[in-house]
Every structure is written in structure tokens, then in C-alpha cells.
Design a protein that fits this description.
elongated; CBS-domain; Tetracycline Repressor, domain 2; single chain; 6 strands; 461 residues; 22 helices; mainly alpha; three-stranded mixed beta sheet
Length: 461
């Protein structure tokens, strides 16, 4: 790609005529040309806009990462001309980044059909399927003959290039099914369109939230999916590009929640916006941190008496947090499948307990041997000012290993139960974020570790 960038830059900066430059640039993919734009000066960018016609420029800008910034400097008449030649969903991506005044002005200057399509898409909420759909699709009537269907395909393909799957509607424009392009091409004239129409071809409702249907979208595995309104009227389509965006948006949202951030935050977000989205969770975690500190203070007599045991505190707390986070990630992944049932959830819960216990047993044994060797090699007494004893070292190492076993088992349970609880009350289980689980597991680990130290060791010193 870097080679293409250099070649395209050289063409734009060359002394050739606009016609010659346009002919040379037609050999490159629009995405490659879009990659060049950030490397251009303002003058060179304007030269590129002069080289390309409106249709080619629209294609290039639709591939640009920051399309709104690319068109910055153009007047609204020029922007309207560019957006008219874009797919409606790409045009909306740019329009929604404008302020209300400019957006309305640009819309008023667009051709009627392009304006109506963009206005319809903008009327849907940002998190809905309707906001992601495009009007770039081919549609025929279920009563068409093979010949008339082919004629409609040829006529519409001049404006719409998503032709691999053709949507079928009835006389009331209600969605009826879909026809594969290759089936239509291979069909004989006397073949009935009904015979090659897949009437159970999936569709999605424009008012559905993308987060609610993205798993269905993955399961369908289609390159394009029709979008209908509440009356089953065909109004748009989700293309492969849109499907990737649906999936990417949902995964990104889950990642944000997993990191204890409300909403999407990127480089373009203001400092205030980023703070507003992160602060609520941080405040909650702050108070949970205070609870951990208060709990630690309740074991102050154990901490002051068994100073050596404090050295191994981080081992127990860290491993408990890691085990809980692993269980959380697995549970969220399973619960994201809408077909999951109660039987599978129970099976997952007991499996995670077994996994946590087994891992805790293995790591507990490793921690027991390692800590025992450490204590006897350096001849460290368990208590402050006490004397070294092999037996006390054995007890101390035993507490560390046992606490690790118990903490990891309980943390795996918590990492599984919390997202299950949110799922049961119809709240996105991703809100059981990593930092929240880690803090709760700290509470468990502190209680287990110092509780066992108090019960089993305090009487020995």
C-alpha cells in the first residue's frame, strides 16, 4: 500500500494535465487514493478534487477515515454534489458530523431522491439498524417474469451496485424474499420467479438496536440483509460493510464496558466527554477500594503480628483477580449467544468452578513450594521480631497455598455469577466490567488470606 501511496502522490504532484492525471488515477482503487489525502497539502488536496469527477470523488471520500475533515473547506453546494453520488449510509456518516445549520443547508441542496434517503436514515436513532442501512440494493416484484426481473436488474444496476442478492417485494412493497443473482442468470424464460425466490431469507427491523441483532447478523452469514419497517415494508439493506460495522460497534461497546467506560471514547472525544464516561465507574471503584482498605484495617493485628505474610499478599490478590477476569470473559462470550438456555448457563457455572478450583489447586501447590523454599532459604520468621522455625515456615507456606486455592475458586464463581445476574435481569452482562470484578475479588482474597492467617497462624506465635 505504501508503494501505491508514493505512486499516487507522484501523479498528483506531476506536471501532467488534469485529464492525464485522471486517467492514471483510474488504475488505482479508491481506498488507495483515500490513503493519500492525509499526506497532501491544502493546495494538493484541492488539485486532487479538481482531477476527480464528483462520482469518483464521492467514492474516494467514502473510504477516507475522517471524511468530514477531508471535505472541510468545501462550500455546501460542493458538499451536496459529492454526497449525492455516495451511498446513502456513507453520506449520512458525514451529515451526522455536521452542525444542524450546515446539515439542513446541505440536505436542501441535494437532489430529491438522495435527500429523502438521507433524511429517512437520519430519522432513526444512532444505535438502531436503520441508522446503519443503505438504500443501495436491487428490488423486483414477486409477480415479475424472469425476463422482466432481468430488465429491472439491468436498469437499477446503473445506480445500485449491490447486485449479488436481489430483494423481492409484493405489490404493497412488503418484503417477500430474495433471489441469488446466479440463480436469476441461469433461470430459463419459462421458469417461475417463485421457484428461485428464497422466501425465508432473513431480514431485520430498522428500529432494532444493533446490539440486539448483531449475533443474528453473524449467524446469517449473508453478504447483504434486507431491512424492513414495522409494517414489513422494504426500506433498506445492510451490506457486508455495514455488517462489519454492526459487529465492530458491538465488540467495541463490550470492550468499553469491560474496561469500565460508559460509551465509546476515541481520539476525537473531548477531555470532558472522556472524563464523563469514565468517572462514574471510577467513583464506584473508589468506594469499593475504600471497602477493601477498611477490611484490611480490620486485620491490622494480623498484619502487625505476621509481617512476613504481607509480602505474599499481592500473589493471592493478583491471582484471584486474574482467575475472576478469565471467568468473566468466558461467561460474557457465552451469554452473548441469544440461543443460550438455563441448562447451558448452569453447566457453565459448575464448569468455571471446577476450572477455578483445579487452577487454584495447581497454582496453590506451586505457591506453597515456592514460598516455603523462600522462607527457609532466607530463614525468615513469620512474626515481627520472632525466631525462624521450619515448622512455622511450613504453616505459613500452607496458608499461602490454601488461600490461593480458596480465593481462585471463589473468584471464578464471582466472575461467572455477576454477569449471569445482569443477564437474568436483562442488563448487558458486559457491564460486569473487569475493574469491578477485580475489586470484588480483592475483597474476597483479603478476607480469605488474612482470615485464614488469623485463624490458623495467630495461635502459633
Amino acid at each position: 500500500m505504501e508503494q501505491f501511496v508514493e505512486e499516487i502522490l507522484a501523479i498528483i504532484k506531476s506536471k501532467k494535465t488534469l485529464k492525464e492525471k485522471r486517467k492514471l488515477l483510474q488504475k488505482y482503487h479508491e481506498n488507495d487514493i483515500a490513503e493519500v489525502i492525509p499526506h497532501l497539502s491544502e493546495k494538493e488536496k484541492n488539485d486532487l478534487f479538481k482531477i476527480l469527477n464528483d462520482e469518483d470523488l464521492s467514492e474516494v471520500i467514502s473510504y477516507a477515515d475522517d471524511a468530514d475533515k477531508v471535505i472541510d473547506g468545501l462550500n455546501n453546494d460542493e458538499v451536496a454534489d459529492i454526497l449525492e453520488d455516495m451511498d446513502s449510509d456513507d453520506a449520512v456518516d458525514i451529515l451526522e458530523d455536521m452542525d444542524d445549520k450546515d446539515r439542513n443547508d446541505v440536505l436542501s441542496k441535494m437532489e430529491d431522491e438522495a435527500r429523502e434517503d438521507a433524511t429517512m436514515i437520519l430519522s432513526y436513532p444512532e444505535d438502531s439498524i436503520g441508522r446503519l442501512m443503505t438504500t443501495n440494493y436491487i428490488v423486483i416484484n414477486k409477480d415479475d417474469t424472469i425476463t422482466s426481473a432481468m430488465k429491472k436488474l439491468i436498469k437499477q444496476s446503473g445506480e445500485n451496485d449491490n447486485i449479488t442478492t436481489i430483494f423481492v417485494v409484493d405489490d404493497n412493497e412488503k418484503y417477500y424474499g430474495a433471489v441469488d443473482l446466479k440463480d436469476l442468470i441461469r433461470a430459463r424464460k419459462e421458469t417461475s420467479l417463485e421457484d428461485i425466490t428464497v422466501t425465508n431469507y432473513p431480514c431485520v427491523n430498522a428500529n432494532s438496536k444493533s446490539s440486539e441483532v448483531y449475533q443474528d447478523v453473524i449467524d446469517y452469514g449473508e453478504d447483504i440483509i434486507p431491512v424492513v419497517d414495522d409494517n414489513d415494508i422494504l426500506i433498506g439493506a445492510l451490506t457486508a460493510h455495514d455488517l462489519v460495522e454492526v459487529i465492530d460497534n458491538e465488540k467495541n461497546e463490550d470492550y468499553q464496558k469491560f474496561a469500565a467506560i460508559n460509551g465509546n471514547v476515541d481520539l476525537d472525544s473531548s477531555v470532558f466527554t472522556s472524563i464523563k464516561k469514565r468517572a462514574p465507574w471510577l467513583i464506584l471503584l473508589l468506594f469499593l477500594g475504600f471497602v477493601v482498605s477498611i477490611l484490611l484495617s480490620s486485620f491490622s493485628n494480623v498484619i502487625s503480628a505476621l509481617t512476613t505474610m504481607v509480602f505474599f499478599q499481592s500473589v493471592v490478590l493478583d491471582m484471584a483477580g486474574n482467575a475472576g477476569t478469565q471467568s468473566l470473559a468466558v461467561t460474557i462470550r457465552v451469554l452473548s449467544d441469544e440461543d443460550v438456555d438455563k441448562k447451558l448457563i448452569r453447566r457453565l457455572f459448575f464448569k468455571e468452578i471446577k476450572v477455578g478450583f483445579t487452577n487454584g489447586l495447581i497454582l496453590g501447590l506451586i505457591a506453597f513450594v515456592s514460598s516455603f523454599l523462600y522462607l527457609i532459604i532466607f530463614k525468615m520468621p513469620l512474626s515481627n521480631g520472632g525466631t525462624f522455625s521450619y515448622l512455622n515456615s511450613l504453616y505459613g507456606a500452607g496458608i499461602i497455598g490454601f488461600a490461593l486455592l480458596v480465593s481462585m475458586t471463589l473468584s471464578s464463581s464471582i466472575g461467572t455469577l455477576i454477569p449471569m445476574f445482569f443477564h437474568s435481569i436483562h442488563v448487558d452482562p458486559a457491564v460486569a466490567s473487569g475493574p469491578l470484578i477485580t475489586t470484588l475479588n480483592d475483597l474476597v482474597a483479603v478476607t480469605v488470606y488474612y482470615g485464614l492467617s488469623y485463624i490458623l497462624l495467630m495461635q502459633l506465635i
